[in-house]
Automatic annotation (TrEMBL):
Designated name of the protein: Glutamate--tRNA ligase
Species name: Erythrobacter mangrovi
GO BP annotation list: glutamyl-tRNA aminoacylation
Record-annotated Glutamyl/glutaminyl-tRNA synthetase class Ib catalytic domain positions: 16-324
Motif segment ('KMSKS' region): 256-260
The family this protein is said to belong to: Belongs to the class-I aminoacyl-tRNA synthetase family. Glutamate--tRNA ligase type 1 subfamily.
Compartments reported by the entry: Cytoplasm
Phylogenetic classification of the source organism: Bacteria, Pseudomonadati, Pseudomonadota, Alphaproteobacteria, Sphingomonadales
Key words, A-Z: Aminoacyl-tRNA synthetase, ATP-binding, Cytoplasm, Ligase, Nucleotide-binding, Protein biosynthesis
Amino acid sequence: MASDSVSTAASPSGTVVTRFAPSPTGYLHIGGARTALFNWLYARHHGGRVLLRIEDTDRKRSTQDAIDKIIDGLAWLGLDFDEAPVFQSDRAERHAEVARQLLAAGHAYKCFATQEELEEMREAQRAAKQPLRYDRRWRDRDPSEAPEGAPYVIRLKVPVEGATTIEDAVQGSITVQNSEIDDYIILRSDGTPTYMLAVVVDDHDMGVTHIIRGDDHINNAFRQLPIIRAMNEIEGNWPDPVYAHVPLIHGADGAKMSKRHGAVGVEAYRDEEGILPEALVNYLLRLGWGYGDREEISREEAIQLFDLDGVGKGPARFDIKKLQNLNGHYIREADDARLAALVAERIGSDADVALLTKAMPVLKVRAKSVNELVEGAAFLSAKRPLEMSEKAGALLDDEARQRLGELSKMLQLQNDWTIEALEATTKSYAENLGVGLGKLAQPMRAALTGTTTSPGIFDVLVLLGKEEALARIDAQA
């Protein structure tokens, strides 16, 4: 039995060219972001080029808002492309031209079957429990048999004998019998190209050598190869690309990632979850690709290390807690001024960026998201009288208020408003009372922040400054 095999060698020129080709019918999905990342890293690792194509041929569902969100999401992740985006809708005439070439060379044919005839065919196939597949009724008929002026589509004449084998760079060897692929439509009766044709033509014209995409496209590879090979016979220089089909991302329950698993769009992780781009990139990198036990991998290291042989064959499971922990690492590593600007953006006009920057070293110690930084910084801009949480209010009983009043008098005399001096004074007072420091620190925290959790209490005193700190304590004493 004949078997055609796709080589995994690079292009003749030796230059690797990859592409990311989203459909702008919604946000940049987390799975799409990982596909974009893998294409970007593979091209950068091999000194090649990575291109962006917007597959906007579905004009009813494609929107400018979705295009903007996709491009914005990619930019936020730091994924740049080597040319301006290609919009598939601009290239319809080029796609149709290739369809006409295939028709003229005998690799495609006109099909005049009506919708009614096709539905009758499908009903008969259902009744016989056969696969629903076009029966090639016009494959070898003379177009002159059709009524004059009858509408037609152009179908690809797919090989019916033998099998095709793809040596996938991720999945390994995959074989499909050619008889399982029907003669699908490449040009509709209104002259518009189908997705299957457009993708192949665009990949060729863009010089794409490696197609890295989700494994839900494996079947498409076997449908697209006949076009590539037919055009190679006609023109030459239409080489088979290298295919690398990456397993999809699943939720924690093992099902395909969807909205019910939480946020699935990149902008939601940025805007709602408070994730930093470097954390999401690192997490997506490790979601289906591995390098030993390494969890934290910088972008520069990823470019150096990434290759397709590290991509697993099985689906990866998305774990939000792992992402949050990784995000905590990157928050601790991040520049304080940058984090302060992100927090200020969320707080609004009341934000004191200079104070936030000063506070960031103590705010970011335990934070796992920008949201937690915002929560932790809330006390800095709180207005008196402070709104007390239930737990904080419970700490301020009569005894605690009396002690705060005495402590306030001692702190009023404090000229050296530093962590060390404030801690020494407070400890001395606690010792005189015969109580542990916590007996003073917790009511102080409540009075200063309105909560029971905050950075170290002496950090809070210094950040608020003497005047504001004492005013807050006095308000509760």
